[in-house]
């Protein structure tokens, strides 16, 4: 229902357009045709078509019901959800023109068209009478940044995504969610309070690795295997010297000793490896990207890098991949082994390296996260999902150690120091060496000092 105030505004806009209509006249026959910019009253409905090659496959896998917000819009033929043609009123068309001033033009189609138009009406009112009239205290940079970044922002807001997926929506669809103030990272992400307990305290990293080695069921045949656990064994490739008596917590001593690096044999079953590869295809592999420039909303852009040529897919919570049985079980297995809760882990980044692809020397620690709500990445748990015919090792050049891919194996290393879990341990630089023959599939689990999932939900990572 369009409010009287907005109706008046749109009517005035309509009159302004109508009275400035240009006339194009022919000198030959003295006839004139209007070139008015008055909008067509037919909705901007593109030809109904699937927009991805995997739509049919996903539909057969039940994704039309499991992930309707994406599938019904981008795979309408496969899901049988092509919208009925509808005729928009002139005022509705003007409303669409007005909302396009605040970002991308918005789509209004299908059974939620009325709800979507209501969101658009509220968006225009919010931007005109709150944001641009100083109803909220915003810097000029934030006002400029507050735009709808996607053409489906209004539709997503209409079906509840501002509440269901706030970390994305409140930043990328801020006008539709009426959250321009949340673009300011200082307001969105206040510092953690002192009562929040980190996953690791100074000295806790070494103690964790000692416990992992001592309790590996494959190394101790008398230990009972816990539910959801495999009969894995641990191989130590690098470690600091064992300490007799009370350990001294000192960064200088830390750097005088080698860092931890261990592998787990039989960490995953064959079925788990195969399922993760399938989920990678389902989540859609795309060119891997690196962290780019800082954005106005406090997030960082992602950039394609010549030093990284692999492809990856995110087994994310939003795509309902993380909550599937196998990923959930593996997250919990990692949590049981490390003693760090599963919500401290990022979603699995499932990787695919074809012959000639690589990731040159880098470090997993991201400096900007050290003081954010998630804290830095403290551990990398890398999973090998298949055997590779040749190449593809994970190489640690400063340690002179290369771990060859082996199906079901995992490798674990720290990104931080035992004496200070917020400080980067530069010695665990590593690279994914070129695959020479075959295809390499793997998965990263990055564990953070604090609750990553809670921070991610609010766009605070």
TrEMBL record:
The UniProt record lists the keyword Transmembrane helix: yes
SMART domains in the record: P4Hc (SM00702), ShKT (SM00254)
Domain Fe2OG dioxygenase: 344-449
Keywords: Dioxygenase, Iron, Membrane, Metal-binding, Oxidoreductase, Signal, Transmembrane, Transmembrane helix
A cellular-component GO term for this protein: endomembrane system
Signal peptide bounds: 1-22
Superkingdom as given in the UniProt entry: Eukaryota
Residues passing through the membrane, by range: none
Span of domain ShKT: 48-82, 146-180
InterPro entries to which the protein is assigned, alphabetical: Oxoglu/Fe-dep_dioxygenase_dom (IPR005123), P4HA-like (IPR045054), Pro_4_hyd_alph (IPR006620), Pro_4_hyd_alph_FE2OG_OXY (IPR044862), ShKT_dom (IPR003582)
A molecular-function term among this protein's GO annotations: dioxygenase activity
UniProt keyword annotation of Transcription present: no
Subcellular compartments: Endomembrane system; Membrane
Pfam families: 2OG-FeII_Oxy_3, ShK
Cofactor(s) named in the record: L-ascorbate
UniProt membrane topology term: Single-pass membrane protein
The name this protein goes by in its record: Procollagen-proline 4-dioxygenase
Organism this protein belongs to: Cyclotella atomus
